[in-house]
Inverse folding.
C-alpha cells in the first residue's frame, strides 16, 4: 500500500466528521475526582472528547455537562468495570469496580441529547464471543440509534486470549461496512509495537480490499510518538488518559517532576503546574491532530523533538 492510501482524511459516517482525531479522555479509573477535573477543563475542550458510560451511570460525571466539545465519544465502560492490572501503567489502580451490564450501558445511551455530535462505542462484553457474533450484537445495539455514529469495539474471541484475532477480523471485514468506526484496544492489537503496526497495516489493507475507508480507532493510546507510529500504519482516531497522567514536553510524555526540571519551573507549586500542564497537553494534542491532517494532504513530514511537522519542501 502507498502512504497516500494508508494516511488520508477519512469521514466518520452519520456525523460527517473527518479524521485524524486525537481525543482527550476522562475516566474515574485512576482519577476518582474526574468530575472536578472535567468541570475545570471543559472550557478548553473544543473539537472532541471521550467519556465513559460507566462513569455517567455511576455519576462520576454528570450527563448534562458532557457536551463541551463539538464531538463526544461515549465509551463502553469496560475499562472502568474490568480492572485488569497492566504493568505498563504508571500505577496500579486497586479500587473495586461497581456493577456494569448491557442494560446499564443502554440506559445511558438512551439519555443522549443532540447538543454535540455523538459517537457510541459498543458494549465491552464480559463473556468472549466470536467476532462474527460481536458484529451481530453491535449491529443490534446501533440500530436503535440511527442518528449517532457507531464505533464497533472488537475484542478477543476466546477465554484467556489477550489479543484480538486479526485473521478472524480480516475474514469479517466485509461485515464492517455498517459501522462508522472500527475500534481496537492498543494492548489487544499485538504483543509488541512492531506487531501492532503490522496488524494495523493488514487491517487497513483488508478494509481497502472491501472498498471501505472506515476509520480505525486505537483505544488507550495518546502518547504523541506512539500515535504517530500507528497513524503511519493506517489508524485514524486515538484516545487515552496519558494527557492527565504525564506532561507532554517536545512531543514526549514525561513525569511531572521531569517536566519541572526540563522547563525550569522551579518556583511553582505542584498543583499549579498540574493544571497548567493539563491545559498545555490539550493544546499539544490539538497541534498533533492538525499536523497529521496536513500530512494527509501533503504527504510531507519532518520529525522534530518527537513532534510531527509539515516540511516546507
Amino acid at each position: 500500500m502507498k502512504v497516500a492510501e494508508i494516511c488520508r482524511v477519512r469521514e466518520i459516517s452519520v456525523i460527517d466528521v473527518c479524521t485524524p482525531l486525537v481525543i482527550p479522555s476522562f475516566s474515574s479509573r485512576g482519577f476518582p475526582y474526574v468530575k472536578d477535573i472535567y468541570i475545570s477543563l471543559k472550557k478548553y475542550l473544543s473539537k472532541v472528547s471521550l467519556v465513559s458510560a460507566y462513569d455517567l451511570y455511576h455519576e462520576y460525571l454528570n450527563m448534562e455537562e458532557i457536551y463541551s466539545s463539538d464531538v463526544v465519544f461515549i465509551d463502553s465502560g469496560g475499562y472502568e468495570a474490568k480492572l485488569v492490572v497492566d504493568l505498563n501503567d504508571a500505577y496500579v489502580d486497586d479500587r473495586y469496580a461497581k456493577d456494569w451490564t448491557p442494560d446499564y450501558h443502554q440506559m445511558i445511551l438512551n439519555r443522549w441529547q443532540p447538543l454535540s455530535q455523538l459517537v457510541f462505542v459498543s458494549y465491552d462484553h464480559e463473556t468472549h464471543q466470536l467476532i462474527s457474533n460481536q458484529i451481530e450484537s453491535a449491529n443490534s445495539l446501533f440500530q436503535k440509534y440511527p442518528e449517532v455514529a457507531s464505533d464497533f469495539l472488537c475484542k478477543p474471541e476466546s477465554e484467556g486470549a489477550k489479543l484480538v484475532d486479526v485473521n478472524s477480523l480480516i475474514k469479517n471485514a466485509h461485515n464492517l461496512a455498517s459501522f462508522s468506526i472500527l475500534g481496537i484496544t492498543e494492548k489487544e492489537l499485538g504483543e509488541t509495537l512492531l506487531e501492532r503496526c503490522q496488524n494495523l497495516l493488514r487491517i487497513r489493507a483488508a478494509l481497502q480490499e472491501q472498498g471501505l475507508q472506515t476509520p480505525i480507532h486505537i483505544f488507550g493510546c495518546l502518547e504523541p510518538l506512539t500515535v504517530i507510529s500507528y497513524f503511519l500504519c493506517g489508524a485514524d482516531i486515538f484516545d487515552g488518559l496519558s494527557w492527565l497522567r504525564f506532561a507532554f514536553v517536545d512531543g514526549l510524555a514525561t513525569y511531572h517532576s521531569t517536566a519541572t526540571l526540563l522547563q525550569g519551573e522551579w518556583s511553582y507549586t505542584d498543583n499549579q503546574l498540574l493544571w497548567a500542564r493539563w491545559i498545555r497537553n490539550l493544546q499539544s494534542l490539538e497541534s498533533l491532530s492538525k499536523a497529521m491532517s496536513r500530512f494527509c494532504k501533503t504527504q510531507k513530514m519532518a520529525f522534530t523533538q518527537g513532534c510531527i511537522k509539515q516540511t516546507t519542501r
Remarks:
- The first strand starts at residue 11 and ends at 12.
- The mean pLDDT is 90.
- The chain has one domain: 3-243.
